[in-house]
Structure to design on (479 residues):
């Protein structure tokens, strides 16, 4: 393409000044950007209010898109359900039979649990979700894995609350504005979650790797007891998540643990619920630096 | 004359008689199109990988390389501000990188005033790669080799999408300069 003459100012003093000012403003802009970037490295939530307001501003569009997305997903599920319906039906019936038996067994275990807890004097708290909302969007072009939730401080959502779908943990609330909030997904490389193996007491940390997988890092090193297919659930340590919610399934064994796939894919869920922080005192204690003493 | 060729008194931007450009559209279209493309990547839910290309950046490069001289050299600052509100990178990242990008293209243009589309694509490719790798380094999280590998599909898609962005910019430019106003 032919070069434009816009950079040649000639003898016009005005054009010369305009051109010079443009370069100065561009340089100052880069400098301001560098300062803001440094600030947001040291204070990551400094601009959360600004981002939240921007997110609230586009929420009519994102809410509509989320409704359409979940609607069309249901439609495709219905259509694909007809494909090989007969054999699927038979398989489901067999599975259903077994599930019924397991359910009866689980009811017996539950009954025994109630009896034992009654003996120990423990009482079960009913956990009611703070809010139920759609995941309306995500930072799909960034290296970081955040999602946006269509509920905010107006609905009672607060920073640190766990977000879960019917299948399992999705993430944790990171920033809140009035009508939307930002969720740190499990797959983000800054996300760490204390977990244990579902059928015994093997405890570990589930860390996001940034490429869609979780790294299961065992706390007790030694002989690696993991096998592919092991299910990990939240252990309740740290105080944010209540114990026993599904997190990940191990797919590959490594030296110090394994690699796991998340159970609850945020892209496949329509509604998620925000639960209150499991043990707020423990969560505050974990967040307090060691040098400072905890008060009452 | 009209009977032989009905479009004889018009060009690509519409009739030349009795019509004029809309100053509002002519000024606003590049800025608004870039801002909208900055917002678009929040709509899909990508839980595993960064799959959606940085569309705002693609449009910025498109407008800057396909229509040089239209966006001022300082355009990276206000447009980067909008992108920072939605991108998920730490605040200030796009303000910094987009400003530097505009300055880099300006510098390049003084050295190579005459360019073909292939050279523009090459330029955009280098800048996009640099932008994505910088984004990986300055994402606010520990940069790991796994998240770098996860960047590759996005990089490839973005590089391949530049010609599409350039064509879109050309279409938007025709829309921008269409003679809407009756005088």
């Amino acid at each position: 393409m032919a070069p434009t003459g816009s950079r040649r100012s000639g003898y016009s003093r005005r054009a010369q000044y305009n051109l010079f000012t443009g370069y100065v403003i561009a340089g100052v802009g880069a400098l301001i950007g560098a300062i803001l970037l440094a600030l947001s490295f040291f204070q990551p939530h400094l601009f959360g209010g600004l981002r939240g307001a921007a997110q609230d501003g586009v929420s009519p569009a994102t809410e509509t898109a989320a409704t359409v997305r979940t609607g069309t997903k249901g439609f495709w599920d219905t259509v694909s359900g007809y494909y090989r319906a007969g054999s699927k039906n038979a398989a489901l019936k067999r599975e259903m039979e077994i599930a019924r038996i397991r359910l009866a067994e689980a009811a017996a275990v539950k009954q025994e649990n109630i009896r034992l807890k009654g003996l120990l004097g423990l009482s079960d708290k009913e956990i009611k979700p703070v809010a139920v909302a759609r995941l309306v969007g995500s930072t799909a072009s960034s290296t970081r894995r955040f999602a946006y939730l269509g509920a905010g401080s107006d609905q009672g959502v607060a920073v640190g609350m766990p977000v879960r779908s019917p299948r399992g943990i999705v993430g944790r609330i990171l920033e809140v504005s009035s009508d939307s909030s930002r969720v740190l997904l499990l797959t983000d490389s800054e996300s760490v979650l204390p977990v244990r193996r579902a059928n015994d007491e093997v405890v570990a940390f589930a860390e996001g790797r940034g490429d869609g997988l979780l790294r299961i890092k065992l706390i007790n090193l030694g002989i690696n007891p993991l096998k592919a297919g092991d299910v990990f659930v939240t252990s309740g340590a740290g105080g944010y998540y209540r114990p026993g919610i599904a997190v990940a399934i191990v797919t590959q064994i490594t030296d110090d643990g394994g690699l796991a796939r998340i159970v609850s894919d945020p892209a496949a869920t329509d509604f998620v619920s925000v639960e209150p922080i499991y043990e707020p005192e423990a969560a505050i204690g974990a967040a307090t630096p060691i040098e400072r003493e905890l008060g009452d | 004359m009209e009977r032989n060729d009905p479009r004889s008194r018009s060009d690509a931007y519409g009739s030349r008689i009795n019509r004029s450009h809309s100053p509002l559209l002519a000024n606003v279209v590049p800025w608004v199109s870039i801002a909208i493309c900055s917002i678009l990547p929040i709509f899909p839910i990508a839980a595993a990988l960064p799959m959606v290309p940085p569309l705002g950046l693609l449009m910025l490069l498109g407008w800057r390389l396909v229509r040089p001289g239209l966006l001022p050299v300082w355009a990276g600052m206000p447009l980067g501000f909008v992108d920072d509100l939605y991108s998920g990178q730490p605040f200030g990242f796009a303000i910094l990188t987009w400003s530097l990008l505009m300055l880099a293209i300006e510098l390049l243009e003084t050295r190579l005033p005459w360019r073909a589309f292939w050279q523009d694509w090459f330029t955009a490719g280098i800048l996009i790669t640099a932008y994505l790798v910088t984004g990986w380094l300055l994402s606010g999280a520990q940069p790991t080799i796994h998240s770098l590998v996860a960047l590759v599909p996005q990089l490839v898609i973005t590089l391949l999408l530049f010609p599409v962005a350039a064509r879109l910019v050309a279409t938007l430019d025709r829309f921008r300069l269409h003679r809407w106003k009756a005088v």
